Structure to design on (506 residues):
């Protein structure tokens, strides 16, 4: 009897990331080590590259990389090195705890059930509305890691209305990253890059706004077409084999049989959505967008200055608009307590629900640390600057259109190696911005090319904690995601290069 051939099964996110770490470690044995000088602001000085003694990474370094990535230290234990993953990982755990408490109340299931009933026959309307909102978040403040909690909410909705987990991931991930791709006033991409080359963040905003509209529209059409195909024939789903398992895991039957929502559950859902609204508002640097947007700073100073209330609240309160992962992590802890009080939950029930929710997110939190290990190996092996130097040499002396298109293509592998948009801008813009002027390409167009490449790569790269975290929550592998994204990526690449090429000669 002939043995059945085993089908190739895509390895888990952890295995893929460790393979990439190992490959990067091998490259440190062959790629010459190098170093750029930096100015007082930390920007790279063009033409200052020098080759240094190589520092090849071995097995010890490969297995220490996720540990050092989590803690944000280099091979010698020095701080700071690669930005630590632990603020993001801890944030994810606390969001999991918050969701555990909310889920215990049954409020989300009841809320999802009401949405399903309300949009009966108009399910596809949810896709353009939600994707547009996420694109706006990505374009204005670089919404990325902050999207991870939304998957837990949107996945059950999409399954319940007849779509699948791929559709849900596409709504959040494609929506937010297309927004980042066409960042208009994103301080972590456009802001850092503009500051590095000494121009206003508003320069080039017109072109980026056009890109935002065009690419968001293309993405919405792409996702809606996929969803329509599944609606007509569920077997067309890329995750059809796990359809029943997904329905069970996300407890879709209880959603579909959910009774009418209670008053307490309505209050819990109000707190739930208020939490995310506060998070979004708190992360947008209002006074950087406009120097007159100082309402939150003024309000916080006023509250802190009150005789009794100020002391009770705490003198070290940070105004909304200046928050980052420590503050939004605190937000989810506080809001989970408020949910427990409003729902009149017992202390023992609250703790059990919070810990159960946090434990559900452990895998996602670890993925973030392992992904950060890639950058650790590159930095410790001192090959990041060398790869950048090769790009600097290859792009000099070209025509405007060819220069900007090759700049975009150059930033694709660089975005794979440095998935952080702000980190990539800080590492490269000091060189690439001035270099563009020699090819009669404005600095703002170079910034547009950089953030377009970074955004498009961060849709699919396994070095992105956001991508791998989202897939871990949705319970399908990156091979399935690549299969879904292949045509959209090709379309976006062509559209971006055409727009950049035309803009360079206008």
């Amino acid at each position: 009897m002939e043995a059945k051939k085993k089908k190739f099964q895509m390895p888990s996110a952890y295995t893929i990331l460790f393979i990439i770490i190992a490959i990067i470690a091998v490259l440190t044995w062959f790629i010459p080590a190098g170093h750029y000088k930096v100015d007082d602001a930390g920007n790279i000085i063009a033409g200052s590259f020098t080759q240094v003694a190589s520092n090849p990474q071995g097995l010890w370094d490969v297995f220490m990389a996720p540990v050092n990535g989590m803690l944000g230290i280099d091979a010698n234990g020095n701080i700071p090195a690669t930005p630590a993953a632990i603020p993001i990982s801890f944030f994810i755990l606390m969001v999991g705890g918050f969701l555990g408490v909310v889920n215990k109340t049954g409020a989300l299931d009841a809320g999802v059930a009401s949405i399903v009933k309300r949009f009966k026959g108009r399910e596809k309307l949810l896709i353009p509305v939600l994707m547009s909102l996420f694109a706006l978040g990505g374009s204005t403040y670089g919404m990325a890691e902050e999207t991870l909690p939304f998957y837990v909410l949107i996945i059950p909705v999409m399954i319940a209305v007849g779509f699948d987990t791929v559709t849900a991931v596409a709504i959040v991930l494609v929506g937010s990253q297309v927004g980042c791709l066409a960042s208009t006033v994103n301080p972590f991409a456009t802001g850092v890059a503009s500051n590095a080359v000494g121009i206003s963040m508003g320069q080039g905003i017109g072109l980026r706004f056009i890109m935002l509209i065009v690419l968001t529209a293309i993405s919405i059409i792409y996702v809606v077409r996929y969803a329509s195909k599944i609606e007509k024939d569920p077997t067309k789903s890329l995750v059809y084999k796990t359809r029943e398992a997904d329905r069970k895991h996300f407890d879709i039957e209880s959603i579909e049989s959910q009774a009418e929502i209670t008053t307490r559950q309505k209050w819990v859902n109000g707190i739930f959505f208020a939490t995310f609204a506060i998070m979004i508002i708190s992360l947008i640097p209002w006074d950087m967008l406009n120097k007159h947007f100082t309402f939150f700073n003024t309000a916080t100073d006023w509250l802190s200055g009150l005789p009794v209330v100020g002391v009770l609240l705490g003198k070290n309160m940070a105004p909304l608009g200046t928050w980052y992962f420590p503050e939004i992590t605190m937000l989810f802890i506080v809001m989970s307590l408020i949910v427990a009080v409003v729902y009149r939950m017992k202390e023992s029930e609250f703790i059990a629900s919070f810990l159960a929710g946090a434990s559900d997110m452990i895998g996602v939190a670890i993925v973030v640390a392992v992904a950060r290990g890639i950058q650790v190996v590159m930095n410790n092996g001192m090959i990041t600057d060398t790869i950048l130097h090769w790009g600097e040499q290859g792009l000099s002396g070209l025509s405007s259109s060819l220069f900007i298109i090759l700049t975009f293509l150059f930033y694709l592998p660089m975005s794979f190696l440095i998935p952080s948009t702000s980190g990539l801008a800080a590492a490269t813009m000091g060189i690439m911005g001035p270099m563009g002027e020699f090819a009669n390409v404005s600095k703002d167009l170079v910034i547009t090319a950089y953030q377009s490449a970074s955004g498009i790569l961060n849709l699919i790269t396994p070095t992105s904690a956001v991508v791998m975290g989202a897939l871990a929550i949705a319970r399908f592998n990156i091979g399935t995601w690549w299969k879904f994204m292949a045509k959209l990526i090709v379309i976006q690449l062509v559209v971006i290069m055409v727009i950049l090429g035309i803009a360079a000669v206008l």
About this structure: The longest helix spans residues 205-232. The mean pLDDT is 83. The chain has 24 helices and two strands.
